[in-house]
Specification:
The structure holds two protein chains of two kinds.
Chain A (H helix, E strand, L loop, with lengths): L1 H20 L1 H21 L4 H34 L1 H6 L5 H29 L9 H25 L6 H21 L5 H9 L2 H14 L7 H20 L9
Helix pairs in contact in A: 1-5, 2-3, 2-5, 3-5, 3-6, 3-7, 3-9, 5-6, 6-9, 6-10, 7-8, 7-9, 9-10
Chain B lengths: L25 E5 L6 H9 L21 H4 L2 E4 L11 H9 L8 H8 L14 H13 L5 E5 L7 H16 L3 E6 L2 H7 L2 E6 L2 E6 L1 H6 L1 H4 L17 E6 L5 E6 L2 H15 L4 E6 L3 H9 L3
Parallel strand pairs in B: 1-4, 1-5, 2-3, 3-4
Antiparallel strand pairs in B: 5-6, 7-8, 7-9
Helix pairs in contact in B: 4-5
The chains are: A mainly alpha, B alpha/beta.
Chain lengths: 249, 294
């Protein structure tokens, strides 16, 4: 329905405008991964093998931070402030609202991936991605997965004050274990199994294949399946448990 | 509006409320905190599912949350936030796009008196200004029916008068308004009819002046709360200063008789009844009487 699409577009434009007006959102979404990239790049300077792994790892983390982290924050905040409840009382279709919100997150992810790819090309000697199709497929599936998980995770967070604690309790361990296992061939089997079962390391592997080795989509189908499975799980919980208002007490 | 009635199972929050609001009417739900006012209104607004009874809002069942209904209602919640990085004008323009025939944004800004803040980020607005924005956002879709849940709680007296003026203007424009409040003067000042609600039940329904004049008539049949006062106990108050300058207050259901008696006595003694006044029972008397814990 075109009307619902128009409203989705309007919501998207509004989200973009608000995003640029919120300095902390802009910082966490753009500057933080860039700082990681610069810091990691400085440490690994001259070691092309490690730089080849750093850039896709940061790209994967960017997908997670622009969707999972950003959406969990946003939804808890809007829920607690009563903005969601207000929107719920208007004729704005739910699909249009979430369409706009999701498109906003996707834009941030796309911008970040573009920055990371560009930085890889210009500063880290990686060159342009080998397989654009694989890159796009993994980014899209990763966005859907982590966005859904972010919305689902917002249900678990009781109030805005504790959002940082909850989000970081998930984000940091997932990033560390995924980075470590991805980088180190000698990681313990237990950690390796954990990282392989979580969605971030498969995403990084897919991005690595796309950006560095050009191994092709077909060699990373297992990774894609893991991300997809988490996406289905996330979507199910995101839709089922969604709450438009703050629970009391 | 076809009228709305609802009865609500055995749920403790709302226990069998039955109300019909006419088109163009300002209807007040009056009751202490926790009486079930907000629960009732939130069922009508489509936020909560009812556990029993029948509800019709503008011919729709609000429980189905149809978009057609939401295009025709405006909601001012007790408390609800707004995007802090938007200006009131931006928020209103966005909200207006949800509705098929919205009002002019500048007109709505003027209506609620937010002109000088229209271009400022919402985060810089004061509590009162945010409440005006609440009104504006509810009105920008040009709704037929407006829900106001405790619209002036926390207002200073001047802001209350302004809000009241807005409500009166809406009523003059033919809008139907369902208002909840725990302020008696607000119900008295704004509502064409009031329902006094307590413990999820309606204790009395009627125009505020009639409720106070004939509290007994206000009771719907069979709706006496257990242990309530017998009808007609809200009395006229006659007060004056006697010859010793002492203030006397007497309650009666028959002010004419008592006045006749008092004045006859005073005339006979050659005294004056200084500061004589007859007080009609106010809505407050009725309210306090009905909602008193036995």
């Amino acid at each position: 329905m075109s009307d619902a699409l128009t409203l989705s577009w309007r919501q998207y434009r509004l989200e973009r405008r608000m995003f640029w007006r919120n300095p902390s959102a802009a910082f966490f979404n753009f500057l933080l991964p860039l700082l990681f990239l610069v810091g990691g790049g400085a440490i690994l300077h001259g070691n092309q093998h490690d730089l080849n792994k750093l850039v896709p790892a940061i790209a994967g983390m960017s997908v997670m931070s622009t969707t999972f982290t950003a959406l969990a924050y946003n939804i808890v905040f809007l829920r607690e402030r009563g903005v969601l409840k207000r929107i719920r009382g208007t004729p704005l279709p739910t699909s249009s609202y979430f369409g706009g919100v999701a498109a906003n997150a996707v834009t941030n992810t796309a911008l970040q991936i573009a920055i990371v790819v560009l930085a890889g090309r210009v500063f880290f000697g990686i060159g342009w991605p080998q397989d654009w199709v694989e890159l796009i497929v993994f980014v899209v599936v990763g966005v859907v997965c982590f966005a859904a998980l972010g919305v689902a995770f917002a249900h678990v967070i009781p109030n805005f004050e504790s959002t940082a604690a909850y989000v970081n309790a998930v984000f940091l361990p997932v990033v560390f274990v995924s980075f470590y296992v991805f980088d180190s061939a000698s990681a313990p089997a237990l950690l390796r199994n954990v990282a392989d079962a979580l969605p971030l390391k498969p995403l990084i592997e897919g991005l690595y294949g796309a950006m560095v080795t050009g191994s092709g989509l077909s060699s990373n189908l297992g990774a894609l399946a893991v991300i997809g499975a988490w996406g289905v799980f996330g979507l199910w919980f995101a839709v089922r448990g969604f709450s438009w208002e703050q629970r009391h007490g | 509006m076809r009228g709305l009635s609802k009865r609500y199972g055995e749920h403790e929050a709302v226990r069998g409320i039955d109300i019909t609001v006419a088109r163009g009417e300002v209807f007040g739900l009056l009751g202490p905190n926790g009486a079930g006012k907000t629960t009732t209104v939130e069922i009508l607004e489509g936020y909560r599912a009812r556990s029993g009874g029948e509800v019709s809002v503008l011919g729709h069942d609000p429980g189905r949350r149809s978009r057609a209904l939401r295009q025709r209602i405006g909601i001012v919640l007790q408390s609800s936030g707004i995007y802090s990085y938007l200006t009131p004008r931006e928020a209103l323009r966005h909200w207006a796009s949800f509705y098929p025939s919205p009002r002019d944004v500048d007109e709505v800004i003027a209506l609620v008196g937010l002109q000088e803040k229209a271009e400022e980020r919402s985060r810089t607005l004061s509590g009162g200004q945010l409440r005006r924005l609440d009104f504006a956002l509810a009105l920008v879709g040009d709704p037929e029916l407006i829900f106001l849940d405790e619209p002036t709680t926390g207002f200073d007296p001047a802001a209350r008068r302004d809000a009241w003026e807005t409500v009166r203007n809406l009523r003059a424009g033919g809008k139907t308004i369902l208002l909840t409040t725990h302020y008696l003067d607000e119900a008295q000042a704004l509502a064409d009819r009031v329902a006094i609600v307590k413990d999820g039940r309606v204790l009395a329904v009627g125009p505020p002046q009639e409720l106070s004049a004939h509290p007994s008539r206000a009771h719907p049949p069979g709706a006496h709360p257990p242990g309530a006062h017998p009808p007609g106990t809200a009395r006229y108050t006659i007060s004056y200063r006697d010859a010793n300058g002492e203030r006397i207050e007497r309650q009666t259901e028959d002010p004419t008789g008592l006045l006749n008696e008092l004045t006859a006595e005073a005339l006979a003694k050659g005294e004056r009844l200084e500061e004589l006044s007859v007080g009609r029972p106010t809505l407050e008397d009725v309210y306090l009487e009905l909602t008193a814990d036995e």
